[in-house]
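Quick one, T. Sequence first:
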Amino acid sequence: MKIVKSISVLRKVVCSLKRRGKTIGFVPTMGFLHEGHLSLVRRAKKENDVVVVSIYINPAQFGPKEDFKNYPRDLRRDTRLLRGLCDLLFIPSVKEMVAQESRTFIEVRRLSDLLCGRTRKGHFSGVATVVAKLFNIVAPDAAYFGQKDAQQAVVLEQMAADLNFSAKMVVMPVVREKNGLAMSSRNVYLSDKEKAEAVVLFQALKSAEHMVAAGSRDTKKIIRTLYDFISRTPSARIDYIEIVDKKTLESVSTIKREALLLLAVHVGSTRLIDNTILKVK
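Structure tokens:
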């Protein structure tokens, strides 16, 4: 595995690989890797000649009161986990990625203003801008993302289509811990008690799936049931529970075809997100 910190060096390596006809799979991350990230890397390795993983904690996607400075970091551990799976590990600095007078940002309208975008102003613009920059640097044939960040995946798919990026966008299923909690780098913030209580998110999703399977189609009724259920957990504070169209992220009142159920819940001081696809048989 070759570690690269310079954009110019990575571009030279990528150009050489492309000249030799090699396909490139790309997994952008913010590090502190877990099995969810590694599942993306393994899929990329299976489907491409060369795998590039980036580790870049992007300040542009953090709000002023969010956890940029405290976001978990362990580069040595990340590097160890990627050996044998990754061919190129790109670890740029903020100075390398952000020009001093940078004035250009990408805004994916409408999709970025809903759900998490209501309380995390500018978050998805920061995500879309850095991913676009990474696509220009890495020139991947395929890029891999996790369904756990469902809104982010929809935003980036729209961005890639609108800006004519050639990379195939691959969204992989949520990877969960044994108790059902969605794997996240921020799970490290949870105490043992909070981690046990956070399972209520997964339980709520499964409850909704069972309701739909039993014939329930009224989204207000489903959401109200989940609110009541999650609210019984002492450490849980609900940000939102919504059922939306999978592509537009607009709320639906009746489930007529597959819909996306998304949750954002604070457990203690940690904000967690999760989701599931509600399927109508």
